[in-house]
């Protein structure tokens, strides 16, 4: 059994690291408004019901170049307003906007932040990192313990083709368990929230089709490219084994979003409906980029199928949903394993950065002033290179994903070019393919 | 091509009154005017002086981008610095190797500066002045590099790399004279010495003065001819109270927030408004240029409670958010109760860079949109502003 010692991030004010007895007694008829079976079914929470159109296509590029810009989506306003309100109530452990942050000079534009407040002065706990799938343990901290004041709103599909907002909606005990968006009390950036699908069902941290679909909707409904959703599997630096995604705002392009790509394979189906899977180029971490498909469901399922394969084969990974849900990055990683086996260099370990989805995407939170002042593209590149699977291993994993998820590999230059010409009628997809990438094969 | 030319004509015609082109051509200098809002950032005007030096006709140049005058030996880094200045809407003075129509290269001092709309501080044109650098003989005198920050035309902070001579470490035996005597003393006849065109040229005080004078003259003409259309331009981003207005990407982001709010800059004297949303202007009845550069106290009037005003001052002083109900007056002097929420906004340095004030007309406060109360929507403005200011200041070199 491989483990590493980590101080887990405190994401909720109710997250104790005390003994399990304490947690047990709290879970028995708690008398406070938590998200457990004791309180939630008789509570009222704001509810944002998103338009439930399975056939919903990914929206066309929002024209952000026009001088005044399109107005912000309602969900965007709701989330920001609710988050700011929780700020004014003092629910966060620190004001993240007081943390210095900068773009590291260099070609890729890695982003560094000096954040001392995230580092909890508690004893490190042991985390098992060699098993991506672990059963839910109700004695450990999970999101049913969270106080309702930390919940911004429920996020569930509506019954029709419209979105609806109910400022105070009774949680219907008879319907399926509610999905909620809650604050992360140790935010990395403004607006840092947690999406917890079907909180009462107590899923362990593992991706399933419905949950990923929900996460994708969060980005598409917010409709702000600054708002991205991320996921860390166990073994890839998730510390809470209760299914959750994270999200926050950053109005800058992340290095991973700027990386060129090269088409590898596509899902089955008609040309228009195919999901294109590309490989990241010129980036320290090997990864796949999913885009295209006719509907959100197409895209979501392609990614979910791939994640399920990785989970079942015990390969830790991170997922980033970007560009309002139009691009999804899947990054298998092995840093935790290397760390447990003592294979990571001392200087990297000393910076105490655990490369989870945000770090891998290029947003690195540092704890020490020294590391922040000296942060360089070289450091970021080295850190992230340690995360990556080797080229050989990545190739293996990609082939296996293709088989498991039913993707067709792009055969050769001729085919690739041909595909590209056909795809040019779907401008959205083609715009992500740099013209010269097809020659790479 | 038709519509492109149409846009180019309009670029001038909408902004400046007739005869502006003639007035500009009365100036002897070589300069071009480009429009960054038209795709391709084309030249919309080229002076006769320019056409003469470069050997092109007007039609060969209008609608084209300035890169057409660059060539194989043009320093890429210099070109990138110019591009960056365009992106950051800053002035730049830099030596550049350009090519005439007949293919012959020559060195010139290129001075570019933005032309701002006085109304909202947006860049509407870039002015580029070209001063040819005459060939000079080499002399074995060590270089002197002094402070040239004071040549900064628009008063903006001179960034270190912005005004400089090229590759001074290479030109160790070329004379650089700064403010000491005339460069003419050192210039012998051009044929005196073979100058390797590959070597960068040091500019002298004379060229810089010529450039500054040309810029000043052109801006004078443009300002005058824009007065007549009412769409004033000026060489400084904010003529009203010095620097302080926001960059274009922040402007665009803030433009997505469809509510009444203003941003004020506490680091400037009397904490002036540096951004006002369209909805704010609709609510108060003022035009943008009447508001920018002024402190928000102009909204208060006879019956405004001074205690409330003092309260606001206190919260601002202690950098705390607050919500107050204050009696304000529109431009037509009609009063309204303003449910005002003020919050400090920090930039990437972690320090307070602005205060955002979000206004709600009290008579509208019960209007809910999709179930979201105006007070909740107020806070969403604060959140959106905080995200924009923080993110968009991460790449800047200083706060």
What is the compact description of this entry?
Chain A: Residues 255-406 form the GDPGP1-like C-terminal domain. Chain A: Specific and highly efficient GDP-D-glucose phosphorylase regulating the levels of GDP-D-glucose in cells. Chain A has 441 residues and is α+β, with helices and mostly antiparallel strands.
Structural class of chain A: alpha+beta
Q: Name the CATH superfamily assignment of the largest domain in chain B.
A: PAS domain
What spatial form of chain B do the alpha-carbon principal axes imply? elongated
Q: Can you give the mean pLDDT of chain A?
A: 84
Number of domains of chain B: 3
Average per-residue pLDDT of chain B, rounded, comes to 79
* Straight-line N-to-C gap of chain A: 40 Å
Low-pLDDT residue spans of chain B: 139-195, 238-244
Named at the architecture level, the CATH assignment of the largest domain in chain B is 2-Layer Sandwich
Strand content range of chain B: 15-25%
Largest sheet of chain B: 6 strands, antiparallel
Bin the helical content of chain A.
Answer: 25-40%
Global structural class of chain B: alpha+beta
Q: Strand order of the main beta sheet of chain A, please? A: 7-2-6-8-9-11-10-15-16-14-13-12-18
The radius of gyration of chain A is: 21 Å
Outline type of chain A: globular
Q: How many extended strands of chain A?
A: 18
